[in-house]
Specification:
The complex is a heterotrimer of chains A (360), B (168) and C (333). Chain B contains 5 helices and 4 strands. Chain B has 168 residues and is α/β, with parallel strands linked by helices. A 4-stranded parallel β-sheet of chain B has the order 2-1-3-4, sandwiched between helices. The radius of gyration of chain C is 21 Å and the shape is globular. Chain C is an alpha/beta fold and 333 residues long. Classes of the chains: A alpha+beta (360), B alpha/beta (168), C alpha/beta (333).
């Protein structure tokens, strides 16, 4: 949709946040110790604008860490079931990055589209939330957004509003009706001058160029047979602690578990995050585990994101946010793994590999 | 599965301390039983969980009791030297002492965890301990009041269990 | 010195493998980028060339052995790491005869977060990393060299460490014992007000409600990824209490202080065995100050039982034994 670029200064931005917070729940970046986290903020003063990327991803907003599906009450032999009490509040999600916005296409594909079904609560959270992307000031060492697409395309394609720092002010561009209607009250904003629009384009260009320096990453084309036994899996599996940091910080991961909790006469069924990197993720009641070691679990994660996932949804399951690259305690990098797979395809004779001290 | 549930809908004014007592089967539980069969009067606020020995008590049980809404936890075993299994209570002694230090550091009031040695003959002592502990915890108030629910969660999901649960 | 030490390590590792003395050498290698070091699992003599040794070798490699080994394994161990190996041997998770411990002298390790912050924008420009004494040297694109003093980015555990010698485990192979840093450690011990005990005291001095809130807020950031548990060398239960479903001690939901419960139980379960390696805090993606509690617990263990975990295989953890004269606080409320 066509919409004018509007501009305001930092004071105006914070006043805007205050105005919105009066009508909607505000989730924005907030500093906690040495990290910046997306959190529900009660005061616009808490919001930070100067950071790389939030430690947590916006996935928590739409696909919570744990979420009640329903609660139930036992009355003797009778069971009554009650739907969840709360409806998702109207929300402004402010301060996510372009890569984060792009990840919503992936979670949408899983929760909103797969098999023609919508996950009700995910869908209503998406509908009730306005996404305001804050354009990056610089490309961080771990960023690979440019390898998975254009950051600007990601923002334009998935954000409702894109806010670009111009140094002394911020440019607001709305891409949807939802977004446009939220860029108010009008007194806070003025139309962008030509010079401001040019500065905005320069900010876009700077990140696009910087991000574009990394080589593009594409789905793994080689046959399953050709890559299944690549020594890289054993090597990475040996190092991998099965800690779950990669999958839990990833904006594009969607695995979950469903459990019941019933301490007395009152109970609930809830959905919670799970990780394919946990040993118990695929264990059967018989005790058999089709992914018995860390090597097979690492392989699963990489190939799900870069081979079977794209085959299913048309989308690579990664947006290059860099969280897993920065935070893996064992330095496992999907960039390195994909490179090794490519190399093996070109020169199949691999040197003696490495392996875990103990399998499983 | 049937469990005693405390009345859920009491107004705040009628709050009563909810104390979980881990009593060893050979000494303390017998002592408590003796107090009961002697018709001694003492407050009913202690829910007893019988364990074979105080050495069986994993700090996990105590921490879980607090997490589930207990306002206080009583741990009692045989006097050192008299453990039915010879040495279980010696292990418990070390373990509970360390646990107590940790709880204090984390902010739990030290009076909420009470450690006792009560023998099978010590019915009066058991009743006294319960009376004292209930009074002390009553002055401290509900442990739940000190909790911060879902602090910092991006999208906290209110759960019926957080409002209506055992012990509140 | 580091260069010489690294060469000797590579030669010894290759020899251990070619002699068939071990099937694998666990050490460190360069990671996906020049500023990263990652664990290495070398199974061929040629592979030993990849081994590196510098102050980014922060990982406690004992964790990779915590469930035992298939066959004989050599592990590169800093003095602090040998303590974790001792803990594992005490609890019979490992067999001494299967283990070849290659000790390296303590040169201190960096706090990776501080190191990355110090690097700043230069991060993307680093082409190679080396170490000279207690300085990290980073060769940059365009020809410059950045020198980062270890003392400026030192891990807190090193600054306060009382153990420098791997006297804890008769090493199978001790590299660099005869190679000493002439000038000693290039960092000063922190003043008492910066040490772990002082932090613990400050927290203990907080009014109770403030203290409780402090910890509740710290633990509320926890996303239950279990990285702390996965990396800990003494968390090796086949079925962790947190994974138990009958009964389910720790629900996988996020209300009612489930995360706090997980951490408190884990802290008390490792108490007396925890060697203060600080890995739990290093790997936590939410930067929860876990070592504040583990250091406090270690201090309590020291005071209550006069015990320091991981010193000798002849001892057992304090909660696994007792004396008749132990402090008795029972009966005094």
């Amino acid at each position: 949709m066509e919409s004018r670029t509007l501009v305001t200064d930092e004071k105006g931005l914070r006043n805007w946040l205050v105005a919105v917070a009066g009508r909607r729940r505000l989730i924005a970046p907030r500093r906690e110790g040495d990290i910046v986290l997306l959190a529900q903020v009660s005061s616009a003063d808490e919001v930070v604008l100067d950071f790389g990327i939030t430690r947590n991803s916006p996935r928590e907003v739409f696909f919570p860490l744990s979420e009640d599906l329903f609660s139930f009450r036992l009355n003797g032999r009778a069971i009554s079931i009650e739907p969840p009490r709360s409806q998702p509040a109207e929300t402004l999600l402010f301060g996510i990055r372009a890569c984060d916005a792009r990840s919503l296409a992936i979670t949408d594909a899983v929760f909103n589209e797969l098999g023609g079904r919508k996950d009700g609560s995910y869908a209503s959270r998406r509908e009730n939330t306005v996404l305001a992307v804050l354009w990056c000031n610089s490309v961080q060492p771990w960023c690979r957004c440019g390898s998975l697409g254009s950051p600007l395309e990601s923002a334009r394609g998935h954000a409702d509003i894109l806010i670009t720092p111009l140094g002394d002010s911020f440019a607001f561009d709305a891409f949807t009706e939802k977004g446009a209607s939220l860029v108010s009250p009008a007194e806070l904003f003025s139309p962008a001058s030509q010079e401001q629009a040019a500065r905005r384009d320069e900010a876009y260009g700077k990140i696009e160029e910087s991000a574009g320096r990394h080589p593009a990453l594409t789905p793994v084309e080689e046959d399953w047979d050709a890559i299944w036994d690549n020594p890289v899996w054993k090597e990475m599996g040996a190092r991998c602690l099965g800690c779950g940091v990669c999958t839990y910080l990833c904006p594009a991961c969607t695995c979950f578990d469903i459990l019941d909790e019933c301490p007395g006469d009152l109970g609930r069924r809830y959905k919670c995050w799970d990780s394919c990197q946990f040993r118990l993720f695929t264990v059967h009641t018989s005790g058999h585990n089709p992914r018995p070691d860390q090597a097979s679990r690492v392989r699963q994660r990489i190939l799900h994101k870069f081979k079977s996932g794209p085959a299913l949804t048309g989308l690579i399951g990664c947006v290059g946010c860099g969280r897993c690259l920065e935070l893996c305690p064992a330095g496992i990098s999907y960039v390195e793994i994909l490179e090794r797979l490519k190399q093996a395809a070109v020169a199949p004779a691999a040197p003696a590999g490495e392996g875990a001290a103990k399998d499983g | 599965m049937s469990q005693d549930n405390i009345e859920k809908d009491q107004p705040a004014a009628a709050w009563e301390p909810n104390i979980v007592g881990f009593l060893c089967r050979w000494c303390s539980y017998a002592g408590a039983d003796f107090a009961g069969s002697s018709r001694m009067e003492y407050p009913p606020n202690v829910r007893v969980i019988r364990v074979p020995c105080s050495g069986r008590i994993d700090p996990l049980f105590i921490l879980k009791a607090f997490q589930q809404g207990a306002d206080g936890v009583l741990v009692s075993g045989c006097h050192p030297g008299d453990c039915h299994y010879s040495k279980g209570n010696y292990y418990a002694r070390r373990r509970m002492t360390l646990l107590k230090k940790m709880l204090d550091f984390i902010g739990y009031h030290p009076k909420r965890l009470r450690l006792e040695w009560i023998s099978a003959a010590e019915a009066r002592e058991f009743a006294d301990v319960v009376r004292e502990m209930v009074a002390e915890v009553a002055t401290l108030g509900p442990a739940a009041n000190e909790r911060v629910e879902n602090a910092g969660q991006v999208a906290p999901t209110p759960s019926p269990l957080s409002e209506e649960s055992v012990g509140r | 010195m580091m260069a010489e030490l690294t060469e000797r390590l590579r030669a010894e590792a290759a020899k251990l493998l070619s002699d068939g003395r071990v099937a694998m050498v666990i050490g460190y290698r360069q990671g996906p980028t020049p500023t990263e070091v990652v664990p290495a699992f070398i199974t061929s003599p040629e592979g030993a060339e990849a081994l590196v040794l510098n102050s980014l070798c922060v990982h406690n490699l004992a964790t990779y052995l915590k469930s035992g080994t298939d066959g004989n394994v050599a592990v590169v161990a800093k003095p602090c790491d040998t303590r974790a190996l001792v803990s594992l041997l005490q609890e019979r998770q490992l067999k001494r005869e299967q283990l070849v411990v290659v000790t390296v002298p303590c040169v201190g390790v960096a706090d990776v977060r501080k190191f990355r912050a110090a690097l700043g924008e230069d991060h993307a420009l680093v082409q190679s990393l080396s170490q000279e004494g207690q300085d990290l040297l980073l060769a940059l694109q365009g020809g410059g060299v950045r020198r980062i003093a270890l003392a400026d980015v030192l891990a807190r555990k090193c600054a306060e460490c009382a153990f420098q010698e791997p006297t804890l485990l008769a090493p199978s192979l001790s590299l660099g014992v005869d190679v000493r840093l002439d000038e000693g450690r290039a960092w000063a011990s922190p003043p008492p007000s910066d040490r772990a005990e002082a932090t613990a005291e400050r927290i203990a001095a907080m009014p109770r409600e403030e203290r409780l809130r402090f910890w509740q807020e710290a633990f509320s950031r926890c996303i239950r990824c279990y990285a702390c548990r996965s990396v800990c060398p003494v968390c090796f239960c086949n079925k962790c209490f947190a994974d138990e479903t009958m009964p389910q001690w720790v629900a996988r939901s996020f209300g009612r202080a489930e995360s706090e419960l997980f951490h408190l139980v884990r802290f008390i379960h490792v108490a007396g065995r925890c060697t203060g390696c600080g890995e739990c805090e290093r790997v936590c993606p939410m930067e929860i100050p876990l070592t504040t509690v583990t250091d406090k617990m270690n201090q309590e263990v020291r005071e209550l039982f006069g015990y320091e975990p991981g010193l000798t295989t002849e001892e057992t953890p304090p909660l696994a034994h007792f004396t008749l004269e132990d402090l008795d606080i029972f009966g005094k409320g």
